[in-house]
Amino acid sequence: MQTVDVVVVGAGPTGENVAGRAVAGGLTALVVEAELVGGECSYWACMPSKALLRPVHALRAARRVAGTREAVTGELDVAAVLARRDSFVSQMDDSGQVAWLDGAGIGLLRGHGRLVGERRVDVTGPDGTVVEVEARVAVVLATGTTAAVPDVPGLRDARPWTSREATSSSRVPGRLVVLGAGVVGLEMAQAWRGLGSEVVVLDRGERLLPRQERFAGELVEQQLLEDGVDVRHGAAVARVERDGDGGPVTVHLEDGSTVTGDELLVAAGRRPATGDLGLEVVGLEPGASVPVDDSLRVTGVDWLYAAGDVDGRALLTHQGKYQARVCGDAVVARSRGEEPAYLAEADEAMVPQVMFTDPEVASVGLTGAQAAERGLRVRTVEHDLGAVAGASLHADGYRGRACMVVDEDRGVVVGATFVGQDVADLLHSATVAVVGEVPLRRLRHAVPSYPTMSEVWLRLLEDYGL
């Protein structure tokens, strides 16, 4: 048996940060990891997906400016793009991440961790050896999520891609069918289309990005269609079949039509990686999200915490790292007989997120519709980003839109959305405004630099009437 103060199951960005926070607070910590230290984001999600998208977007950006478009005489070097992607995932070698753990004074135990009792975790190593670990203070679950594969006849037998295969493939499929039109589906559709695939996106809904402001889905779809991506709405899948071993995949839709591709990417959301964590030991349901309070402590279990995607609150890497800071500090505080100094308030209505398609979709807080559903008296103001000097300099014929959602009773911004090329860096100013509940009468004195795209803030305030 090994004994430490804090045992963290899962060594992704969330788990690493929980452990780091605990050690910084004077506790000892051990992380348990069955795969690569660094987790999903580092090797199969955030980093490789953006590495695939960046060359596609950079080439397009050059072609949108007179003078540089004439200098672009070739196409993407696909082999170089894939090699650059591989460099960002360190060739699937986690030794650099392991060195960081070691330097931070965090222990590592490789294997599958499972709760077996109060503050006790069994870790089954790659060779089948079981090590029992006991936490003097707390156990933290940070195992994240895995790709959800719908229960469609023939789908699993067809060996579809999930996000992991889509971000790590060493070859460009001639034809790619994408089942699902969320962030993963649309980002990967655009990436592989830019690298040469023929792409069909099957969207079960009637419009893209229904949880965003309506113009977001409209502008993204317009660009996808111009890229040559075939977007089909109301596409309900009846069954799937693959021809032989590695042959074409045919998707049969409920309307009787079919779509055939060389690969099928299932981008139908994520599910908590809790199926074999031993949750039944503490009376929780295996396979479900782990319920927590705002300090990330598991409901009804004073020694158990859950942070990141595994708790289902906000499935984003940066929110997981935010939760990790809250969680780690809460564990340290309670080990001293104190209560946490702050809680995870941002998970409720202040979550920033970026979809790295072209155009990018960057949003924080509530949409106008969401705010109204919460009973707020709101006003939504929109402005054409292409009419802002900084954007028109950024790209010829710049196409984009921005909006802010104002709580009329308090006079503060409760949501903002920006859609357009390279708008992601506009988002943090909006996040500060939303989180800080900055009154509009003060925002008018936050003078944007000219000529930058940030000038859209001035235009939004003017359109509001200030």
Automatic annotation (TrEMBL):
Family the UniProt entry places it in: Belongs to the class-I pyridine nucleotide-disulfide oxidoreductase family.
Keyword terms, alphabetized: FAD, Flavoprotein, Oxidoreductase
UniProt GO molecular function: oxidoreductase activity
Sequence ranges assigned to domain Pyridine nucleotide-disulphide oxidoreductase dimerisation in this UniProt record: 351-457
This protein's name: Dihydrolipoyl dehydrogenase family protein
Enzyme class: oxidoreductase
Pfam families documented for this protein: Pyr_redox_2, Pyr_redox_dim
PANTHER family: MERCURIC REDUCTASE
Source organism of the structure: Aquipuribacter hungaricus
Organismal lineage: Bacteria, Bacillati, Actinomycetota, Actinomycetes, Micrococcales
Entry's EC annotation: 1.-.-.-
CC cofactor: FAD
Domain FAD/NAD(P)-binding residue range list: 5-318
